[in-house]
Specification:
12 helices; alpha/beta; about 280 residues; 5-stranded parallel sheet
Length: about 280
């Protein structure tokens, strides 16, 4: 039973019990008691009361862009590109009342450069409980999809999980770590949810957010940063356009990179439905 309906039923029962308990008293007391119970019933009918004690998914929950900007600037060091792109992407996406497709963020870099930390910051700014939220879902390829022979089972389970959770909360967040180790079959299971579809099997995924974390291209990003340093330029002078061509070529040419099918699919659409950032 939905929270609001459950609370209204409980309030109605409380009103009935209160009325029965005070019938032995004078009419004025009865009127006061019933009036108090009625006021309480009206208060309990609001879903907001339920949401004070349990996590709720609010359809139009606003993004505090100032808080996100402060978190990224104060907690994330040496990643000016990630700060700029993520802030712009999330703010624009959440301010759009009717997005045409889900937001997709692809974060690249060596281990320890902050990809998981950034996804944690994003999750905390989208849902109050962050990575512990019922509406934020983290998948690690080597942990959740370890056996190639079970790929069909993984595909079915993942699609049902995404479909069920987006049905429950349109603004659900899905984080996929170690994308460079993910089997192409799992990537094929994700792709239908990312394109320009009004609905897929009766469910709209246009307000969901998908974040992909990958070590692919980490060496190329480091080389580009080193080249800037050798040229006497500041790290902050590096722009997104300086890294995207290098990174795309590196990902495409890596025959052992399991991210390749998704990378090709994304790049063919020139990232019209998402943003790519380099960590």
């Amino acid at each position: 039973m939905p929270p609001g309906r459950w609370l209204r039923s409980a309030a109605a029962l409380l009103l009935l019990l209160t009325a029965q308990m005070v019938t032995a008293f004078e009419p004025i007391s009865v009127g006061i008691a019933i009036g108090t119970a009625s006021a309480l019933a009206g208060y309990l009918s609001y879903t907001d009361l339920y949401c004070r004690f349990a996590e709720c998914c609010r359809k139009e929950q606003p993004l505090n862009a100032s808080a996100l900007k402060l978190d990224l600037e104060e907690k994330l060091f040496g990643q000016h590109l990630a700060t700029e792109v993520i802030l712009k992407a999330l703010t624009g996406f959440r301010n759009n009342k009717n997005p045409k497709k889900p937001l997709t963020l692809s974060l690249h870099g060596w281990a320890g450069t902050g990809k998981n930390f950034v996804s944690q910051i994003v999750a905390e700014n989208l849902h109050s409980k962050g990575l512990k939220s019922n509406f934020v879902h983290l998948f690690v390829s080597t942990l959740h999809f370890p056996h190639e022979q079970k790929m069909k089972l993984y595909q079915d389970q993942l699609q049902k999980w995404i479909r069920g959770n987006v049905s429950a909360c349109a603004s659900s967040v899905f984080i996929f770590d170690e994308m460079d180790k993910l089997h192409p079959g799992i990537i094929d299971a994700i792709k239908p949810f990312l394109d320009y579809y009004e609905q897929v099997d009766g469910v709209s995924y246009r307000k969901a957010i998908f974040i992909f974390l990958s070590n692919a291209g980490g060496d190329l990003i480091t080389k580009a940063a080193l080249d800037f340093w050798r040229a006497g330029k500041k790290r902050e002078d590096i722009q997104l356009k300086d890294l995207e061509p290098v990174l795309s070529v590196g990902v495409f040419n890596n025959k052992h990179n399991m991210l390749l099918p998704l990378a090709v699919w994304l790049w063919a659409r020139r990232f019209r439905f998402g943003h790519r950032s380099n960590l």
